[in-house]
Amino acid sequence: QVQLVESGGGLVQAGGSLRLSCAASGRTFSSYFMGWFRQAPDKEREFVAAIMWRGSTTAYAGSVKGRFTISRDNAKNTVYLQMNSLKPEDTAVYYCAAGQTRSDKAYEYDFWGRGTQVTVSS
Q1: DSSP string, 76-95
Q2: What is the pLDDT of residues 56-76, one digit of tens each?
Q3: Residue 65 burial (C-beta neighbours within 10 Å; 0-12, 13-18, 19+)
Q4: Do 51 and 78 touch, CB atoms closer than 8 A?
Q5: Burial level of 116, CB count in 10 A (0-12/13-18/19+)?
Q6: Which residues are within 8 A (CB) of 35 and not within 5 positions of it... i.e. 6 or more apart?
Q7: How many beta carbons lie within 10 A of that of residue 54, not counting itself?
Q8: How many distinct helices (H) and strands (E) make up the chain?
């Protein structure tokens, strides 16, 4: 019902910034929460941030709070993740996901993109 495509990943030095985009297509429910997750090599997939499709509700993982900002452009059906002050430990494949409730658990999300690679060098 919902298709998600991430973009904006790349290679950046520590302290730099990147903005990821998640373009949604298909039928999107206004009550959905959009989440960003990431998975580093040999690590479990972890929650990064989430935002309600309509409204102002947001949530962040403690490891990124104050550095990352999630936002949306409903007219473009796009969710963004602005990443500042990047650290090498932020290196991971970043995934966009959609779910019917706000959650920091990957299994609570129903739809997933294929991911975009973010690499932060030291």
Answers
A1: GTEEEEEE-S--GGG-EEEE
A2: 789 999 999 999 999 999 889
A3: exposed
A4: no
A5: buried
A6: 47, 48, 49, 50, 96, 97, 98, 99, 103, 109
A7: 13
A8: 0, 11
The token pair at 22 is: 């998640």
The amino acid present at 67, given as its one-letter code, is R
The two tokens of residue 45 are 């997939």
Which two three-digit tokens encode residue 120?
């932060």
Spatial contact of 24 and 85, defined as CB atoms under 8 Å apart: no
Q: 37 with 48: CB under 8 angstroms?
A: yes
Q: For the segment 10-31, what is each residue's pLDDT rounded down to a tens digit?
A: 999 999 999 999 999 987 666 6
Amino acid letter, 11 = L
113 vs 24, 33, 34, 94, 99, CA distance in Å? 9, 14, 11, 9, 12
